[in-house]
Each structure stands twice: as structure tokens, then as C-alpha cells.
């Protein structure tokens, strides 16, 4: 046996602990020295470790996770893409699957109803995020002033986001109840709007879901903004004060730019979450009245698990995935560019 | 082993052996799946007799109506073994028979001498057969049901209200016989003060998520003579689904919704209507006959305070069909026991007790008893309704057909989008595409 080619690592067991693999040259020199010592008896146990490089060990460690990811993420994704070109229906076992080409995509993109669901989703996502950013940032600025009892207020403000969306949706239906709901009572107390129904009115229902989502998730945005505000070093403000910068100027030149990366992160999280919003809106309106609050995810669920049009709904899922994935990628690039400034 | 120890072990073995026989019977279990509503409680009570007779323990899986179809259709589609027996909606028959979810019962019926002639023909056709018109049986008619109406008999009887109504409409305030009268009565009560409280005309179905508004709208469509397709040319729907009469019926339903329902009644199905009625909010409510025994016994609105009437006529007299048959799930490991339950349930004496407990038997031994109309204040109306029932599509693609109708009718009636003609034209397009995809056209 040629020891120069079979001994990859150190001979001394102690010396191999936590050490980087020696280079080929070093290994040859090392093994050459060993052979000169004539320690051929030690070569056999060392050969058992052959091939276990650090890279191999790393792959071994991450292999289970990778396999799991492939099994539960990548394979279903590829399978969904395949199904989107078929007429497959999951409730028809044994029926041959037929390849229909791009028919599902053509039907989806040509459907006025589908564009309506996407518009409803866009309205919900844009307005809820806009309101949550404004209110969340405002609350964070207030809480950051560390007034007396601010910790208690923070806890109280955070309560809505700790509830289940389904529970929130259900109890807001009671608050919106036209005859006995406290929401209608309060609106009438202040502005005397008369009889109105938030979730039964075509014009008000889209705003009702925005309102409830804002109530629930503004604390989340506030929390992220608060983290951003607390990460700003105090000396920057002190330096600004030395330069006699006004509070307004400090806000726009220090606070906003330094909180912006945090805010953008919050926007991304909320956008992804709201794009796939389901439970809260289903409990509130079931997508009605008519279809004015039927968000894309609600329609997707109806197509996939009520109508069992698996191929068609797979195509819709692929379109939604590409949309969210593309938008998120562009957004992350913007975020990174901002961080580098 | 010493003698004492051996005899102790032997004694224990004998004791265990003695226990084993009854324990074995008790170990046999069946799970029956149905919706969570009043009749399910009656069935639980009734099934105690089956357990006493057979030693088979009954478990029940009752799911609220709003998630009933989702829950159990998913169970069937995934080949789930949760349910041995399923009381499924009549519309599921096509899919469940076609895709092998239910056990075909013809041989079992023949073997056990269970005759479908013993059940009301309309219920056999609606709850048991697929394809329609055939004699292939997939269920035993279990729970007859139709959509009817309940009214506040005590309010209708008030002299001052009777007088005011007659002055306004020229005829007596009474349970409406036609849809025009229904609207008159509902309009009369809308916003009226009764006992210091504002009340409203009628609680009708407007629910969007499952099947509510479709059931409500068809309750109006059928009396206008609605037909799903050309009787001579199956799946030819243009000119039938969107006929002038269908348009008129849909417009009438929308008018009733706009004039005479309580504020915010935009997503209402069975429970919402019941709540509105029980709380004294409405003068009339549309609901399934299945709820009527509970209403008749209700503390607040039961007894003489409530009356019942069959769906009013327009051009003809017709009602939307509810109700279900009981089927054996083909994925069950306990099919023999499940069949034993069905055999027991089909017995005339059991059917009589079923009706007495609040279930709606479809057995002629119950319904054709001369005394049947006198057994409950709604019994005569139930018989009358069942003689003119009409059901939604029972095709394997029923869920797609239903969702399309939910959307189109809710868009028009509640969301006030487009016209009735446009809504029904779009419905024809939707349904045509469903049948094309299914290879029926």
C-alpha cells in the first residue's frame, strides 16, 4: 500500500481535532515523514476516515433538511406546475389525467372574475399596508418617548396581533352588526350616519376588511419600527442638536432614513401575509357581498377544494406564486440597495 | 407452580373469559356522520335502541352545516375511514356513486326484503337513486325535508294588525298563499313597532359561502316553473335557466330581500334565520322543515305563537328539496355492521319512533297513516310540500354548479351588480363550461 496516496489526514488522532484539512503537498510531506518512521501499523485505522472531508460532513449534516425541503417544498411546487397543464381533479380517483396545454392559464387570464379577485386583493393589500405603516410608525414614535406607563400601553397595543385571525374575524362580525354592534353605535354617536352595514354593503365591505386587518396587524408594524427607532444611536441626535437641526429636520434626516430598512421589512412581511389572506376575511364576509371581498386566496380555495378543479387551481396558484415571488425579489433588491446607502 | 397460585390464575382466566363475551359485543362500534342540527339529536336518541338491540356502540360525528359539505366531501374524496355511515346531501349522490364512495345497496335490499316501494316515491328518487330515473340505490331515504315557512301566528291574530292590513291590501292578514301575498305581508311588517320593538318582514336565505342563497333563490324559481334543462335535450340550458319566468322569479327574490329583510341580513342561512325569528325580529322566516319541531317547542316562539306554511305558489306550487339518505361508506371496515344499522333503521316501527322524536321519516307506514297530519302542527304542510319538491343538480360536478350559482345570484341579489337576466345568462355560461369539461356536452 502506498502510504503517500492513502493517508489523507494527520496520523496523530489528537492533532486532527477541529483542524482544517492539510493541503495535498503538506499531506504528502506528512505521510512521507510518517513512512520514514516506519509506522505502517498506524496507517490502517486512519484509512477508515478517508473521504470525510469537512465539505462531506457539511453535506451530511444538511442532507436531511435538503431532502425534507425537496419533499415538501420543491417537489410539490414542480408537481403543481405540472398539474397546471392538465385537467386533473383530485376528487376523481382513477380517471386518466389529460394534458390540456395552456388552456387553464388562458381561461384564468381571460376571466373577468379572476381579474376582479386580483383587484380586490390589490385593494386590500395596498390599503391595509399603507394604513398599518402610518399608524404603526406613529405608535412606535409615541411609545419610543418612554413616557410613564409606556410598557403597559405597549402590551395593550400588542394584544390584537396575539389573537387568532379566525377569532378576530368572528367577533368583528358582531361589532359590525347593524342593529346591536358597537361599531355602528359609535359611528352613529359621533357622526349620526344612520342605518348602515359595514360587511353587507358593496361599497363598505372592502374597507371593513382593511379596517379589521389594520386593527389586528398595526401592532406588528409598530414593533418592528420600535426596534428600528431603538437601534438609532443617541449621539447622532446629539450631533444634530449641536448643529442646531430642528426636530422636524432630525425626523426627516435621521429617524426616517434609519428606520426605513426596518419599515420596508415590515411592509414585505405584511404584503406577503396579506396577499395570501384567507381566514380573517372568510369569517368576516365569506368573500361577499357578491364577490367584492373575494380575495385571490379565497377563490383559490373554492376552486381547489370545493369545485375540485385541481388543474385549473394549480394554474392559478402558479400565477399567484410567480407574482409574489417576483415582487418579493424586486423588493428585496431594493431593500439591499437601501441598506448599502 | 403451587396449587393455590394455579387456581388463582385459572379463576382469573375464567373471569376474563366470562367478561370477554359481552365486551366483544360492546367493542363493536359504528361511526355515523351527519350535520349538527336538531334532527341529529333525535337520531342520537333513536340510535340508543339500536345499541340496546345489537350491542353495537354508536359514535356520532356531527359537523355544522356551514362546513358540512367541505368536511365530509373531503373525507370521501380522500378515502377516509372516519364514517361508516354517512347521511349525505342528496346532491352528493351522483359523485359518490360515480366515484365509488358509497356502497350500492340493491343486493342488500333484495336480500333483506327492504322494498323501496315502502318509501315515498319522491324521496326514493331524490335521496337514493343514481342515475336519476334508474333503480340503482345508493342510500336509504333517511330524512325527508323541504324548504317551508314559519310565521308569527300571535302577531297575525292581533285585531289591530288584521284591520290595518285589510285596509291597506284589501284582503285578510293570513299565511300567504302566493309570492305576491308573501311580499305584501312582509312589507306590512317591515319596520313596524310591535310591543315597543321594531320588527321586520321576513328572514330569507342570503348566505354566500356554502349553499344558502342558492336554496333561497330556487325556492322562488321553482314556483315560477323553473327548469334546469330542456326535458327533451339534457344539458341544453339556454332558454330554460335564463327564461323570462326565471328572470321574473330572481327579480322578485331580490325585491323581497331589499324591501323586507332585517338590516344586515346579507349572509344568512339556517341559524341566522332561526336567531332572527326566535328573537322576535321578523314576522316570517324561510327555513327547512327539519327545524320546525324545535320551533314548535321553543320557549319564546313555540306553541300557539308560531304557525307554518308551505312555500307559496306563483305559477305552480313547488318547494326546494332538502333532506338526505343514509349510505354505507365504501372505505369503512365495518360495512356489515353499517348494513345492520340500515336494516334496523328501515323497520316501520323504528321509522315511527324516528318521526315521534323529531326526525322526518320518508316511510309510507308513517306518512300514509291517516292520523299523520294531526301528529304535528306542520305535518300536513310537510306532506303537501313533499308532493311538489324539486332538487338542485345531483351531477358529480354538483359542487361546481352550486358555487357558480352562489356567485351569480349573490352578485345580483345582495351586491346589486348587473341585472337578473345577466346573472342567469352568466350562470348558463358557467354551467355549460362545467358540463363541457365533464364531457357531458
Describe the structure.
The complex is a heterodimer of chains A (341) and B (441). Chain A is globular and about 75 Å long. The two termini of chain A are 60 Å apart. The longest helix of chain A has 32 residues, at 112-143. Chain A has helices at residues 3-6, 24-36, 43-47, 54-83, 103-110, 112-143, 150-158, 165-175, 182-191, 205-230, 234-242, 247-275, 279-285, 296-305, 310-340. Chain A has 341 residues and is mainly alpha-helical. Chain B has 441 residues and is α/β, with parallel strands linked by helices. The longest helix of chain B has 25 residues, at 3-27. The termini of chain B are far apart. Helix content of chain B is 47%, strand content 13%. Chain B is built from 19 helices and 13 strands. The radius of gyration of chain B is 25 Å and the shape is globular. In chain B, the strands form 4 sheets. Chain B has a 5-stranded mixed sheet with strand order 2-1-3-12-4, sandwiched between helices. In chain B, strands 8-9-5-10 form a 4-stranded mixed sheet. Chain A binds chain B through residues 87, 90-93, 113, 176-179, 195, 197, 199-200, 202, 282, 285-292, 302, 305-309, and chain B through 69-70, 73-74, 77, 79, 95, 99-100, 207-209, 262-267, 396, 399-400, 403, 407, 410-412, 414-417, 437.
Outline of the structure:
Chain A is mainly α and 341 residues long. Chain A is 69% helix and 0% strand. The radius of gyration of chain A is 30 Å and the shape is globular.
Can you tag this structure with a few keywords?
heterodimer, A: 341 residues, mainly alpha, 15 helices, globular, B: 441 residues, 47% helix
Spell the H/E element sequence of chain A. Answer: HHHHHHHHHHHHHHH
List the quaternary state of the chains. heterodimer
Gyration radius of chain A, rounded: 30 Å
Sheet-strand content of chain A, in percent, reads under 5%
The number of strands of chain A is 0
User: What is the count of DSSP helices of chain A, taking H or I runs of 4+ residues?
Assistant: 15
Query: Which class best fits the helix and strand makeup of chain A?
Result: mainly alpha
Portion of residues within helices of chain B: 40-55%
Q: Outline the low-pLDDT stretches of chain A.
A: 1-43
Low-confidence spans of chain B: pLDDT under 50, at least 5 residues? 6-24
- Radius of gyration of chain B, in Å, reads 25 Å
Name the overall outline of chain A: globular
Largest interface: A-B, 30 and 31 residues
Amino acid at each position: 500500500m502506498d502510504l503517500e496516496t492513502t493517508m489523507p489526514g494527520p496520523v496523530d488522532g489528537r492533532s486532527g481535532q477541529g483542524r482544517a484539512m492539510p493541503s495535498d503537498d503538506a499531506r504528502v510531506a506528512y505521510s512521507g515523514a510518517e513512512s520514514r518512521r516506519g509506522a505502517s501499523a498506524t496507517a490502517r485505522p486512519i484509512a477508515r476516515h478517508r473521504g470525510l472531508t469537512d465539505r462531506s460532513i457539511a453535506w451530511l449534516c444538511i442532507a436531511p433538511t435538503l431532502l425534507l425541503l425537496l419533499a415538501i417544498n420543491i417537489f410539490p411546487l414542480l408537481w403543481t406546475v405540472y398539474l397546471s397543464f392538465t385537467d386533473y381533479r383530485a376528487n376523481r380517483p382513477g380517471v386518466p389525467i389529460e394534458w390540456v396545454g395552456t388552456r387553464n392559464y388562458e381561461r384564468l387570464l381571460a376571466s373577468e372574475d379572476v381579474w376582479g379577485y386580483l383587484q380586490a386583493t390589490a385593494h386590500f393589500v395596498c390599503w391595509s399596508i399603507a394604513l398599518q405603516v402610518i399608524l404603526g410608525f406613529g405608535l412606535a414614535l409615541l411609545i419610543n418617548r418612554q413616557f410613564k406607563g409606556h410598557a403597559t400601553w405597549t402590551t395593550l397595543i400588542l394584544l390584537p396581533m396575539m389573537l387568532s385571525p379566525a377569532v378576530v374575524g368572528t367577533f368583528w362580525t358582531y361589532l359590525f352588526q347593524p342593529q346591536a354592534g358597537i361599531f355602528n353605535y359609535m359611528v352613529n354617536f359621533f357622526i349620526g350616519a344612520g342605518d348602515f352595514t359595514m360587511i353587507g354593503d358593496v361599497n363598505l365591505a372592502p374597507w371593513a376588511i382593511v379596517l379589521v386587518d389594520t386593527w389586528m396587524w398595526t401592532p406588528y408594524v409598530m414593533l418592528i419600527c420600535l426596534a428600528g427607532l431603538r437601534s438609532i444611536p443617541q449621539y447622532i441626535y446629539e450631533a444634530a442638536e449641536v448643529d442646531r437641526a430642528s426636530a422636524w429636520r432630525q425626523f426627516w434626516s435621521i429617524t426616517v432614513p434609519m428606520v426605513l430598512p426596518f419599515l420596508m421589512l415590515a411592509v414585505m412581511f405584511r404584503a406577503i401575509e396579506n396577499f395570501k389572506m384567507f381566514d380573517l376575511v372568510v369569517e368576516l364576509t365569506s368573500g361577499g357581498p357578491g364577490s367584492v371581498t373575494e380575495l385571490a386566496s379565497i377563490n383559490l380555495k373554492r376552486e381547489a377544494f370545493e369545485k375540485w378543479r385541481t388543474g385549473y387551481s394549480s394554474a392559478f396558484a402558479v400565477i399567484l406564486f410567480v407574482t409574489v415571488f417576483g415582487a418579493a425579489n424586486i423588493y428585496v433588491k431594493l431593500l439591499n440597495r437601501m441598506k448599502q446607502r | 407452580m403451587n396449587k393455590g397460585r394455579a387456581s388463582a390464575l385459572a379463576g382469573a382466566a375464567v373471569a376474563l373469559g366470562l367478561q370477554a363475551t359481552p365486551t366483544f359485543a360492546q367493542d363493536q362500534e359504528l361511526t355515523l356522520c351527519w350535520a349538527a342540527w336538531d334532527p341529529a339529536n333525535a337520531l342520537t336518541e333513536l340510535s340508543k335502541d339500536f345499541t340496546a338491540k345489537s350491542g353495537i356502540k354508536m359514535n356520532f360525528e356531527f359537523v355544522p352545516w356551514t362546513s358540512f359539505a367541505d368536511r365530509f366531501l373531503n373525507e370521501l374524496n380522500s378515502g377516509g375511514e372516519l364514517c361508516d355511515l354517512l347521511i349525505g346531501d342528496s346532491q352528493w349522490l351522483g359523485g359518490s356513486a360515480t366515484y365509488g364512495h358509497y356502497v350500492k345497496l340493491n343486493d342488500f335490499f333484495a336480500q333483506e326484503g327492504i322494498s323501496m316501494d315502502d318509501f315515498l316515491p319522491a324521496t326514493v328518487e331524490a335521496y337514493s337513486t343514481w342515475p336519476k330515473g334508474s333503480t340503482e340505490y345508493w342510500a336509504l331515504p333517511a330524512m325527508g325535508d323541504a324548504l317551508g315557512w314559519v310565521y308569527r301566528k300571535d302577531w297575525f291574530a292581533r285585531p289591530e294588525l288584521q284591520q290595518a292590513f285589510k285596509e291597506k291590501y284589501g284582503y285578510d292578514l293570513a299565511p300567504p298563499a302566493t309570492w305576491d301575498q308573501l311580499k305584501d305581508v312582509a312589507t306590512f311588517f317591515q319596520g313596524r313597532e310591535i310591543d315597543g320593538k321594531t320588527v321586520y318582514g321576513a328572514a330569507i336565505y342570503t348566505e354566500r359561502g356554502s349553499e344558502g342563497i342558492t336554496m333561497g333563490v330556487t325556492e322562488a324559481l321553482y314556483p315560477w316553473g323553473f327548469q334546469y334543462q330542456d326535458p327533451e335535450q339534457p344539458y341544453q340550458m339556454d332558454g330554460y335557466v335564463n327564461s323570462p319566468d326565471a328572470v321574473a322569479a330572481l327579480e322578485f327574490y331580490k325585491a323581497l330581500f331589499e324591501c323586507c329583510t332585517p338590516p344586515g341580513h346579507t349572509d344568512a342561512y339556517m341559524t341566522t334565520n332561526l336567531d332572527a325569528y326566535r328573537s322576535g325580529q321578523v314576522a316570517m322566516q324561510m327555513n327547512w322543515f327539519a327545524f320546525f319541531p324545535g320551533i314548535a317547542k321553543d320557549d319564546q316562539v313555540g306553541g300557539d305563537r308560531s304557525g307554518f306554511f308551505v312555500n307559496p305558489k306563483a305559477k305552480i306550487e313547488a318547494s326546494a328539496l332538502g333532506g338526505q339518505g343514509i349510505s354505507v361508506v365504501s372505505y369503512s371496515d365495518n360495512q356489515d355492521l353499517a348494513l345492520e344499522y340500515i336494516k334496523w333503521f328501515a323497520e316501520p316501527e323504528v321509522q315511527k319512533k324516528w318521526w315521534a322524536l323529531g326526525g322526518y321519516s320518508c316511510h309510507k307506514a308513517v306518512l300514509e297513516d291517516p292520523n299523520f297530519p294531526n301528529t304535528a302542527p306542520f305535518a300536513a304542510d310537510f306532506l303537501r310540500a313533499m308532493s311538489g319538491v324539486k332538487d338542485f343538480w345531483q351531477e358529480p360536478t354538483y359542487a361546481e354548479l352550486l358555487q357558480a350559482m352562489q356567485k351569480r345570484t349573490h352578485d345580483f341579489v345582495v351586491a346589486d351588480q348587473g341585472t337578473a337576466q345577466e346573472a342567469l345568462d352568466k350562470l348558463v355560461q358557467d354551467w355549460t363550461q362545467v358540463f363541457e369539461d365533464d364531457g357531458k356536452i
